[in-house]
Amino acid sequence: MLHIKCPHCGLRSQNEFSYGGDATVKRPELNKEVSDKGWDNFVYLRKSPRGKHLELWQHISGCRQWIKVERDTLTHEIFKTLKANEEA
Amino acid sequence: MQKYSVFSLIKNAFKGHKDWEVAWKDPTPKSEYDVVIIGGGGHGLATAYYLAKEHNITKVAIIEKGWIGGGNVGRNTTIIRSNYMHDENGLFSEFGMDLWRNMSQDLNFNVMFSPRGIINLAHSDAQMNVYSRRGNSMRLNGIDAVLLNREEVRKIIPMADFSENVRFPIFGGLMQPSAGTARHDAVAWGYARQADSMGVDIIQNCEVTGFDVSNGKILGIRTSKGDIKAKKIGLCVAGSTNILAEKLNMTLPIETHLLQACVSEPIKPILDNVVTFGAGHFYCSQSDKGEMVMGGDLDGYNSYAQRGNLPTLQHVLTEGIAMFPFLSKLKMLRTWGGIMDMSMDGSPIIDKTHIDGLYLNCGWCYGGFKATPASGWTFAHTIAQDRPHELNSGYSLNRFSTGHLIDEKGLGTKTWIS
């Protein structure tokens, strides 16, 4: 069981959260011409590293806020958690 | 190579089983090969076998970081099926079914292929409609499919929960009678033994540490046992695909996730099919030893851990008990996990890459075991002929940017959602 420290609620068990994927993926800017390559990168391509991974989780059975979690994908160690609008 | 038969078994029994030949050798790597396959799992071993058998390419090495068959080919729930709706998946898998049916004879190794049939249970009228559509698509592609009503399902699996007032009543199911199971380790060992006998070097405990690429062409690999030159290199490393892709400066439409499976204590024969729960993600069969073999959802977040987390297992087994209430009485014998190369549309990739001489086989999600022979056969063709076979032409790497996705489940790119 992962224990995730929600920046709004404190330490909670994994059961309260749902996963939202890689938090480093950036949507191409609005109202600008987007190349096919740019869309491809955003929608489909993932680094999926073994080791530190910055990812989105939603505290769905708690405060319902989206948060960022920096976690090791091999050991599951959680290094830090951030509010969704905070930069790592 | 020594032929395995009842006669060789009797002969060796009289000699106290001391004269059996080794099934495959333990060679030191040569400095150069025509083809190097990275990954000694089922797909890599099958690829080497079909390179030798179908294309006469025998200067081949398989480079495996651990030991052969230690990854997902030894960690799956052994289900073999071709019950897909989309043409690409259906035709590819049905081609594989023919290879499965002849595999024990072909490899002279008993892989215990058991075509016991798979039933996908339906729990609503809407789901019955979806299944009848999928069944019709399957039959158009020459795959056997039978739509069962509630009473027909009850005749086959009377121990399922047919009581009144359950949350997910069984409305019926879609059955593929020719689907089944096989002994997964035997598949790896059978391919390894035949490949070895035709001259393929199986090099275990050898980690790939880098690639030698020059002017857009692959020249060789660097390994923990020295540099190896190769004209062609095939990547066949499932959940480790992204780790090697990073060394090649490639970013792929793949995320690595963890899938768990488990077996119960052995019990007397009760279930002679593979059955899947339709209102969640749970599948179950009974092994020849009597264990109930079970699996279901991904753990749900990127993972390379090769071991699972209890909340997911509890969730999956809750579904299992909803389907087969008797499971609640059983003790768990073992649980384990494997890392899955989840592609962004749920379908695999068998293709060339932008690097000349480098070929990619990945994206099997949680359906890699059944694809072992067809994957090996088509990947060997792709490498030998330097172009995809008709069967794997849909499994291209660029289908994501061109929009030709094969999204069998309609899940989109969120591979962790089940």
Overview of this protein structure:
The complex is a heterodimer of chains A (88) and B (418). With 88 residues, chain A is mostly beta strands. Chain A has a single domain, classed as Folate-binding fold. The mean pLDDT of chain A is 95. In chain A, a hairpin with a 5-residue loop joins strand 5 (66-72) and strand 6 (78-83). In chain A, the strands form 2 sheets. Chain A has a 4-stranded antiparallel beta sheet with strand order 3-4-5-6, with no helix packed on it. A two-stranded antiparallel ribbon of chain A has the order 1-2. Chain A is globular. Chain A is built from 1 helix and 6 strands. Chain A has one helix spanning 36-43, and strands at residues 3-6, 10-13, 18-22, 52-58, 66-72, 78-83. Chain B has 418 residues and is of the alpha/beta class. Chain B contains 11 helices and 18 strands. Chain B has helices at residues 6-14, 42-55, 87-101, 103-107, 125-140, 150-156, 184-197, 241-247, 310-323, 372-385, 399-402, and strands spanning 32-38, 60-63, 79-80, 118-122, 146-149, 172-176, 180-181, 201-203, 208-214, 217-223, 226-235, 254-264, 274-277, 282-286, 292-302, 332-343, 349-352, 358-362. In chain B, the strands form 3 sheets. In chain B, strands 1, 2, 8, 9, 10, 11, 17 and 18 form an 8-stranded mixed beta sheet that branches. Chain B has an 8-stranded mixed beta sheet with strand order 5-6-4-13-14-15-12-16. In chain B, strands 3-7 form a two-stranded antiparallel ribbon. In chain B, helix 2 (42-55) links the parallel strand 1 and strand 2. Chain B starts with 5 loop residues before the first helix and ends in a 16-residue tail after the last helix. The model of chain B has no long low-confidence stretch (mean pLDDT 96). The chains are: A mainly beta (88), B alpha/beta (418). The interface between A and B is medium-sized, with 27 and 24 residues.
